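INTERNAL TRANSFER SHEET
From: sequence group
To: structure group
Subject: TatD family hydrolase

Please process the attached sequence and return the structure record in the designated field. Keep the field labels unchanged so the import script can parse them.
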Amino acid sequence: MQFIDSHSHLNSDAFDEDRDEVIARMKAAGMAAAMVIACEDDELPKLEALLAEHPGWLFGAWALHPEFPDKPEPTVERIAEICSRPGFAAVGETGLDFYWCKEPLDWQRARFRRHIEAAKAIGKPLIIHARDSEREALEILRDMHAGDVGFVMHCFCGDTDTALAVVDAGGHVSFTGNLTFKRNEALRETARALPLESLLLETDCPYMAPVPKRGKRCEPQYVEYVAECLAGLFGVDKAHVARQTTANAVRLFRLPIRLEEA
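Return from structure group:
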């Protein structure tokens, strides 16, 4: 089975001691690819080194994360330049965070719009971080016609109506290991209400390890457990979920990956 982890932080310090071994485990598990996300300038060198070492298998995305109010604001031109470098497939993660940051947040909204403008300028999709802000983030995405380049709401935690509105706006919804947590029955009901053609798998590693790995450092190949959960919700086998979500990721991120036949 082919799996794609659509959102990982393999460049995180949490992997500094054994990153090569983690990547070897990914390959042994048959992972087709992983997106690796950098959230500020300091994370770029490690990300670019990974992309150079694993071309065509690891793909990158960069943005200035909405949790960082005191970082210098990147221009549209700088965002576009970075995300046009070799191996970069998306702009993100960008968006709104009303959990860690409190009003006034006009700086956050302006930053989000600059990232959307840059993505549209270079024709690359967006990876959206929206925490306690899904509806307002979606309003901005609609206003700026982000569906023209495509976007994914990563680590989705919102309600069913919002998830359906994301799909209606031309977006994708991505679930992490949070989908497998016992308390998250409402989130599983939301997933069940969506077309499988709109879903991506992710780990957000090293965070959000799924059951049965919960409490441990997460690794990209653990997307298999998210796929297993979705398979149960949709009443299909895990291989079907793998094929469809991998095809979805390849299409959204325009990845040069040959898909397995059914």
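Handover comment: The radius of gyration is 17 Å. The mean pLDDT is 97.
Transfer complete.
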